[in-house]
Structures are given as structure tokens and as C-alpha cells.
Amino acid sequence: MSAACPAFRRGRCLRRLAGPALLALLGLLGLGGTAAAQSSAGRPAYESLRFNEDWSPLRDPALRTDPFDPLKWIPLNGTGSVYLTLGGELRARYESARAPVFGLGAPRRNDYTLLRSFLFADLHLGPYARAFLELASGFAPGWAGTPPPTQKDELDILQAFGEVTLPTAGGQIMLRGGRQEMSFGSSRLVSVRESPNIRRAFDGVRAAWIGAGDTRIDAFLVRPVSPQLGNFNDSNDRTQLFWGAYATTAIPALPGLKADLYYLGLERDEARFAQGTATEHRHTLGTRLFGKRSGFDWNVEAAYQFGSFGTADIRAWTVSANLGYSFADLPFSPRLGLNADAISGDRNLRDNRLGTFNPLFPKLPYFSEANLAAPANLLDIQPNLTVSLTPKLSLTLGWNPLWKQAEADAFYAPPLSPVRGSAGGTGRFIGQQTSLALSWSATEHLTIGGTYVHYTPGERLKQAGAGSGEFLAGWAQFIF
């Protein structure tokens, strides 16, 4: 860019292209002045939510050490207060599934490749305004039958929003409108849905107060976006409305402890549970405690749901825990972990109450990459062991038995579908899975991983036609 216009960094190209009127507008907005000094303590890091990355420290030439740095901070005026960041992702993922969802899914055998690419542009108009655009493309060669839109979406807008940030006493206020990704807490209830080709996004508005340290309060009103086969035709789901508030803060009296507190509301037409199909109005109140200290790490969450399902009342709940201890002084720094969930189901399908928990927009997969079960009407434990074979190569082994929480309710397949023939009967044991996962952070840009999962159903699901199966996946992800 500078070769085509040597004076670009001094802002002359901007004057030549935009003219005096645009420069006057930038001046009125306070975008043409000297940018605030940035810390040069270290380089920014790549993040899952790419719009959270701040590459303005690359104003310091000493920090520009990566071949992709010319894309991370592209100044568009003389002071660099108006700048552009470009980035993206390329991912190739092979999957082989035999007897998915304990043999209750279709097709019985599926071997395919998932190819996805993301490209984004993040335009910063000074310290207070920005515009973010991200395009996504996904293909699924080899898929048996027609791939779902979450796997095949030729080209579409994944994110497109405008944002204004205003300084306030003790923090700042952020206002954002448009299509955007959202992920809160540990992604149990609101996530980006990472494993499929097309990540989850929402259309709507979001506001946040961002205080010192880890203190933050978010509020939003959105509709989920439904991917569609084709080009630039994704639209929001008019049958669903999602709103809420999410707060996070550190607990000063207990070092290492942080807490979340949240309210989430969902309105959904034609919601389907084992009890039937009706309009769902659901409210979720929850809290999460998490942190690390002296080798221990913990992530404990509880939520209660109420509302209406047709003429029935909703009364549902969940309690989840991820606990671990790392032996940093031992070879391979092993971490012993225990994950456990208790997620309510419906004890009586014929009364005027729905007890099935709705996980809203959870991370997928939830329990393993095989994506066997939705987090509804479940009891499970998952002891696991992670070892660091090298500082960048880790191996995780886990075992995960699952039971119904309520015997009368159905077993729910992802994302939240009652499996035919699985309600009622006798016995709660659903089945078990054993998983092995490998992750190698080869470079700052390249991650290579793989997983193998073997699963067997319990007697109750065998009565519904279930059988043993396995899932194998390997992937390479390149980000820039």
C-alpha cells in the first residue's frame, strides 16, 4: 500500500481520496487528533472472538515481528488514530462418524471433510467508534446426502456491526448494533458453536459497561441467525427472541475467585419437547464461580428456569462443575479433572408442568466431539486426565457415563430434539463414551488436533434401537 502511495502514512492519500469534507467530519468526531499512547509491554494475542483483538500496540515498530503484522495495523491517517485490521481463518477438518447419537442418528455412516474460511475487516475510527465485517464460507465434500446449512454455506456475512465506546467515570460504555457473535462465561448457555463450519451469530443490539479489572455488565436483545444454503442469504430466526443481562466481577475478599451473575430470556415458537410442541416463554437465572489458586482450578455453575410452555408452567434447573488440580512439578505437568452435570428433565409428561431444562445456545459439542447428547435431562460425570507431552502438545483422556435425570422424559439429541422411542420405559442409564483428544499449538498461527470417541448405549436406548459407535476427527486450523 505504501509503495502505491508513499505519503500514505502522513495522511496525504486520505486527503486525496476523501476530500476536505471527510477530514472536517473526522475532526468534529475527534478522530484526527493524536492517538492515546499505547503500552508496548507486549504483543496482542489472537482470540476466539476476533473482534476482541486490539492490534493498536503495533504502532510501536519494535513489536512488529510477525509476517502478518502489516495486516494487523494499517494506518489510514497521519496519526494512526484511524486504522484498519485484517484477519481470518482457514480450517480443514476430517470427520468419520459411525452410528451417530448412539446409533439413533442418521446416516449410519458418514465420512466427510469440513472446509471453512473466515475473513474479517475491523475499521477503527479513532478511540470511540469502529465497524466490523466478517465473511464466512463453508463446504462439506463427501457428506452423505445434503449437508446441513451449518456445514455448507457457500458465502455469507457472519458478522457485521457498528460499535461506539464512550468513556465514563470508572470505566467505559460500549454500544453495538448489527450481526455479531456472543459467548458468555464458559459457553454452557451462550456460545459461538465452534466445531461446525459456520459459527453461531445473532442479529440485534448489545450494550456493556466495562469497569476496572474483570468487572463487566452486558445487556442484549437479539435473534439467532439461521444459516442457509447459498450466497448472502442468511437471515435471523423470526420465531425466536433472545434477551438478557450478564455480569462478571472478581471477588476481592477471596483471591483467585471470580463470579458471574446473569438473567437470560427466550421466546420460541413451535418449541418441541417430549411433552409436546407449543410456544415457549422461558427465563433463566444463574450464577457461576470460577478461578485458580495453588494448583486448583474450578468452574461451578447453577441456573434455574421458569416461565410457560403453552398452558404449562416451566420449572427446570441445572448444576454443573468442572474441577481440576495440576501437578506442575511432575513430569508432563498432569492435570486431574472431574466434570459433572445434573440437568433436570420432565418427571410427568402428562401434567401441567415442564421440567426439561433448555440449554439455550450451548457450545457444540458439549460433552465430546462426537456430539452425542444435548445437555437436557441428564446426569453425568467425566473424570479426565490431561498431560503436556511438550509445552505445546497436550493429550487428554476422558470417560463419561450418562443417565437420564427424569426416567419419564426423553433422551435429547443435539441441539435439543427428543429422540423418538426414548421417553418412558424403565432404567435411566443412557450409555457411556471414552474419548482421547490431542492438541498441538504448532505456531502462533497453526493448531493441529485430533480426537477419537468410542461409545456404547445402555439398555434403555438399546430398546429404542441404539447401538455402539465411534467418532474420529482430525483438523488443522490456521489463523492470521
From TrEMBL:
InterPro entries: Alginate_export_dom (IPR025388), Alginate_Permeability_Chnl (IPR053728). Residues 83-469 form the Alginate export domain. Transmembrane segments: none annotated. Keywords: Signal. Residues 1-37 form the signal peptide. It holds the Pfam family Alginate_exp. This is Alginate export protein.
